[in-house]
Amino acid sequence: MAAEFVGTAFLVMAVVGSGVMASTLSPDDAGLQLLQNSLATGAALVALIVALQPVSASFNPVVTLMERALGMIGSRTAAGLIGGQVLGGLAGTVVANLMFGLDAVSFSTHQRAGVPLWLAEVIATVGLLLVIFGTVRSGRADRVAFAAGGYITAAYWFTSSTSFANPAVTIARTVTDTFAGIAPSSAPAFILAQLLGGAAGYVLVRFLYPSFTAVSAAPAADRKVLS
After folding, report:
1. Torsion, Cα of 210, 215, 218, 223 (10° steps)
2. Which of 132, 121, 120 has its CA nearest to residue 202?
């Protein structure tokens, strides 16, 4: 739970903080702002997974629910990890706001709604689960950090929603009225789309990777957490 709290907090700090910095450095270039935001987020995600994977490094309730559905963790563990992720995300937003001299909490006014954006969240979440669990279930858990970070960086650009794909991060981004924010009224539909994407991702992963492939060369910590 502590690892999920800390990891999600730093991930959200990267998302929100780089968004504020991008808006400050490139106020008239939305494309450059998105580039700066996506590179910072993807790089932070790689680093955090590498550092915390031996403990716990999902940082995403949909990923944790997928682990539960696949029998990798129990229900009580899943609930605890999700709680850590949600609280960590909110803490990360507060810290990011304070670092840039903003109010600790300021609800976002950035409306993100409509079928195209909801569809984008379904697709983004399916793709994220495919990348993570395709890597893990084919016995390459030591590479999941780079796969997930690379995918998220790319998904910022090929999805109309800029690929939130994470309920904890979505909740956290409601309390910052900055580049990365999402209005509280827009968050429930995003989260529902992410959960639908999670269900579709589960079906796809089970179809493509019906069994887990162990690799003897994988680090001991990776073998321990992958059932």
Report:
1. 50
2. 132
